[in-house]
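Worked example 4.2. Below are the chains of a multi-component assembly; read each line carefully before continuing.
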Amino acid sequence: MRIVIAEDQALLREGLRRLFEDAGHELIAAVENADRLRAAVSEHEPDLAVVDVRTPPTFTDEGIRAARWIREAHPRVGVLVLSQHVEAAGAVGLVSHGGFGYLLKDRVLDVADFLEAAERVAKGGSALDPQVVASLVGGESADALAVLTGREREVLSLMAEGLTNNAIARRLVLTERTVEGHVRSVLMKLDLPASDGAHRRVLAVIAYLRAGELKR
Amino acid sequence: MAGGGACTLDVLAGSDGPGVWMTVGGVVATLASTAVGLLLTTRRRENPIGWLLLANGLVLAAMGVAEGYAAYAVLAEPGALPGGSWAVLFNERAWPLLFASVTAIAWLFPDGRLPSRRWRPYARIGAASFAILVVLLFLMAERFSERFAHVRSPLPEVSEAAVGMPFALSGLVALASLVGGALAVRSRLRRTSGVERLQLKWLAYAAALIPAAVVTCLIEVAIAGDDGPATGIALVVALTAIPVGVGVAVMRYRLYEIDRLINRTLVYVGLSVGLAIAFAGVSLAVGVAIGSGSTLPTAVATLAVALLFGPLRARVQLLVDRRFNRARYEGLRTVERYLEDLRAGRAAPEATGDMLARALGDPRLELLFWLPAGELHVDATGRVVDPPSGGDRVRTPVRRGPFPLATVVHDPALAERPDLLDSVIEAAGLAIEIARLRVEVRRQLAEVEESRARIVTAGYEERRRLERDLHDGAQQRLVSIGLALRHLQGQLPAASAEAGAIDATVSELSRAIEELRELARGVRPAGLDDGLGPALRGLASRSRLRASVEATDDRFEDRVETAAYFVASEALANAAKHASASTVAVSAARETGSLVVSVRDDGIGGAVPGLGSGLAGITDRIAALGGSVTVTSPEGEGTVVRAELPCGS
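Applying the procedure described above to all two chains together yields the following structure tokens:
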């Protein structure tokens, strides 16, 4: 993958660069704020842009805004937003567009999962942090999800995180066929349209969960 | 003076020589006239009034000396001294000069000029008539008074038949010019205002004492058969009144107190008359009832008078005010009614300024309270005001003992009515003091409230900074360290013991980061940056209860959102811990200038919001921001925690 990074802390920027380079990816640019990120993305049109939510100058939601801009201006570029915490409004909405990921920063320490998510996003898939999914699955949606078995709920959460059936199977140490069965069952029970594309499936699941959230 | 002179002549005519009281009166009058004359001529050299008083004093002195000289040279030791007959002549015939100076003062007072050019010919005629009168008196063939009846005038005598007509005529004209003096004063009084009017009032007051002195003198002579102490006192007062009054008026020292003086005089004269009548009436009645010769009537009458004094004085004062000082009467009535309203709770002490404006008839009047702590003036609303000075506004301080309470800013016209101003302010003193205290307390309370809000806001700011530091500082650093360790791990063979140790360390690090994140959220949820709704939804999703959230998308001040969030957070925690609840409804809505946050659970209720509970601290912080928290928790019906936070609009 060809990657651009926007992270204001030099140490972390360096760590990320090494992380991607160790994994054999090409780091085209590592910049310190969202504006430079825009320039770098326009210039290099990378496969993936990794951006910190809070960057100078205001340290609020520059990363989210930059992600939205990339979404509009360079739809082919995947965007992975890294955050210090899960409460960033708007991130969930962006996930549903595909080619977008939203992860807590410390997920980078689970190197394999992180790289898998990054690659998924670069290819147009989704990545939503487990904590965000947990908050979507908890609360009011819990009632609606009562029809699911425990295993099915696990599968649903991983679907919402953006994982493919294959990845879900690996994560849960199941056969892919078993996972497919669970997925079918979940979609049927929740009355969601069956779909081949992993991304559209995520979209449906998240839309469902968010509808539950909005009701609250 | 004229009355004094008349009285002098009157008494002189009927006795051998001047009594001791007459002598004292003469000496005092001479001294007063001369002293004030000297004072005025040195200070106001250009004003003829001083010179006239001086002349008047000299004439009086000369007459006194002449009398003594005549008595010695003609009666005691005839022929021992020369010019005895001249002394007799001067003593007996110079009296019109006294009237002349008084008349001139009346015409020229207070600026030394005639009221207008039209008066000039009359003034000349008047002056001439006095001159002619004195000359004719000196030449007239008339016997001297009884004591000096045997003395022959040193001047050639003209028969009365020859001078009769001119004498009568000049006497009449002189009398007319004396009356003209009174008219001049009246005319000036009518057209002037301000200081000159007060000056004229002083003169008029002094002049009015003379008839009063004459009446006193006559009454004493009628009752006691001779002049005595009352006559003496009346004479001293009458003879000194004009010089003193003129001196006050021209020097303008205590010029403004004339109204009070008139008022007091009227009150005490009225009081004296009333008490005298009461005394006479009671002693007569008791005397008739039990027979004369006893001291009882006098004692009873004295007692009656003593008992009557207080109420009668108030009554007379009221009558005098009502008749002669309507403004003061009405002003005091207004204050009195206001104080009654204040006691009954129908009026607020803050309205004291408006009331004073009404009582003193100055709609622009301002009452500014003095706050010694800040050394500044504030109005009734607590706003800091610099009292205007100069121009058309005058400041009068209000004091309670030595302590300044307030400043009344008023029209300069009021400064000329110190009796009105002072008595109204004095009557309203308590109300002013109460109003000042209330304003002071309110200001202090507002200051405390502001500082409390600042402290709470600063606390929230501090939390935000701390949260930033934890997230952007410590947490990121730990992630960087983790990445570095991962990098190291990558260099090692996957199965090595070192790689395993690093992996374990990174796991520990991940947990540390997780804990740090929780800590930071407790300090201040970062979700608040996105608004109360997202923050509350985040809060609800983390609760172990089923929590629904209905929150406005409006944004509020950071401190308001933060405070609202922590109320909900604390209430949710309580619901989870104590209420045995299963579902909670959280709502945040804008309601007419307030952000209202409520948390309703379906638990057992019966919660007692006591001290030491987490909610108590939150309640304090809400109160600091001007809001309030209520907890409704009927047994068995769940608990509702409701917080209202003012949010400006």
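Take a moment to check your reading of the output against the notes. The radius of gyration of chain A is 17 Å. The first helix of chain A runs from residue 10 to 22.
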